[in-house]
Amino acid sequence: MKIAKEIKVAVLAIVAIVIFYFGFNFLKGIDFFDPSNEYYAIYDQVDGLTAANPVLLSGLSVGRVSKIEILQEQENKLKVFFEVREDITLGKESVALLTSDILGSQTIVIKRNLVKDPLPEGSEIKGNIEPALTAQIQEQAYPVLKTLDSVGQHLNGILANIDKNEEAIQNIMLNVELTTQNLAKISEKQSTINAVIDDFKKISATLANEKNGLKALLQKTNGIADSVNALELAKVVNRLDTTLLTINSTVASMQDGEGTIDKLLNDDSLYLNLNQTLLDLDALLIDMKDQPKKYVHFSLFGRKDKKKD
User: Fold this and answer.
1) What Pfam families does this protein map onto (predicted)?
2) How far apart are the first and last CA of the chain?
3) CA 261 – CA 267 distance, rounded (Å)
4) How far apart are alpha carbons 128 and 111 in whole angstroms?
5) In the chain, how long is the greatest CA-to-CA distance?
6) Predicted confidence band at 267 (pLDDT cuts at 50, 70, 90)?
7) All domains of the chain, ordered by start, with CATH?
8) Which of 17, 38, 62, 228 is most buried, with most CB under 10 Å away?
């Protein structure tokens, strides 16, 4: 029995189509011989996620995205269906994290966590979105760019001030140059400076010496001062004591009626006699003034002898 060419072509075409279908889906990650469970997660956005994108668990591909639906009644949220190998159980604690690599490829990463209550096939898995790498870079770079902008503004202000104060800056540079020259001159006299420092160290060491240093000298000075103070004070006290004894003796003698002072103070006869003498002296002086010739004989030509009566 011969088979018509048309039938052969038709069978060959069907076989090719079937092979192409299975091969294409195999290349997309669909394994028709490995049973899987389907779950879904809801996201606000998917950033270019498409069907057949891989589902990873600890870096291992364990499934694929099967389809994506738009939930228009829920503010256009996206319902993403994905398949996971049947031997992998997910629970309420599990998370479907939507991530992207540096090239922008989207992947769902399963975070199983500790599964206490396994979910049946077709259940909802909590969905989260990991910030894209570019978004993270932008978030980290924004403060840096802001700081750079502020630094740039400060630099512009500084440059403007430099332009305005160019003469002052030149004067500062000249002063710096003069200072450098002076330091160079000082460095040329380093040997003299070292000698002065050495002498200062020797003087300091001498002063710090306990036997012959400043401390010992001060102690000796203090001792001499104390001795002088003690000596002068003792002399003053002795003199004062002698003076007081003399005064006490004199006062005692006056109180006992001894001596001229006591008589002057207590006997008025001496006062009366002295007063009478002064009166007689005063009368004599008055008489000498009135009759000087009675008391004084004076001649330019010599003394004349008195006639004898």
Assistant:
1) MlaD (PF02470)
2) 237
3) 10
4) 10
5) 237
6) low
7) 34-130 (2.40.30)
8) 62
pLDDT at 107 over 80: yes
Q: Exposed, middle or buried, 125 (CB in 10 Å: 0-12/13-18/19+)?
A: buried
Task: For residue 4, name the pLDDT band (cuts at 50, 70, 90).
Answer: confident
* Under 8 Å between Cβ of 133 and 73: no
User: Mean pLDDT score of the chain, rounded to an integer?
Assistant: 76
- Residue 115 neighbours by CB distance under 10 Å: 14
CA angle, residues 122, 127, 129, in degrees to nearest 5: 150
What is residue 247's predicted lDDT score, i.e. its pLDDT?
A: 74
pLDDT at 43 over 90: yes
**Type and span of the H or E element at 34:** none
**CA 45 – CA 127 distance, rounded (Å):** 11
Say if residue 308's pLDDT is above 50: no
> 95-100 and 126-129: which strand pairing?
parallel
pTM of the model: 0.40
Distance separating alpha carbons of residues 189 and 48, to the nearest angstrom: 78
Per the structure block, which two tokens stand in for 198?
Answer: 């050495």
Report yes or no: 36 and 122 within 8 Å, Cβ to Cβ.
no
User: Cα–Cα distances in Å, from 205 out to 84, 102, 219?
Assistant: 89, 73, 18
Residue ranges in the chain assigned as alpha helix (H): 5-27, 133-164, 166-188, 190-208, 214-256, 259-266, 269-290
Compute the average pLDDT of residues 70-79.
Answer: 92
- Rounded-to-integer distance, Cα 288 and Cα 202, Å: 92
**Residue 257 has which token pair?**
């009626």
What is the Cα–Cα distance from 161 to 122, expressed in whole angstroms?
A: 71
Q: Give the residue-averaged pLDDT of 198-223.
A: 67
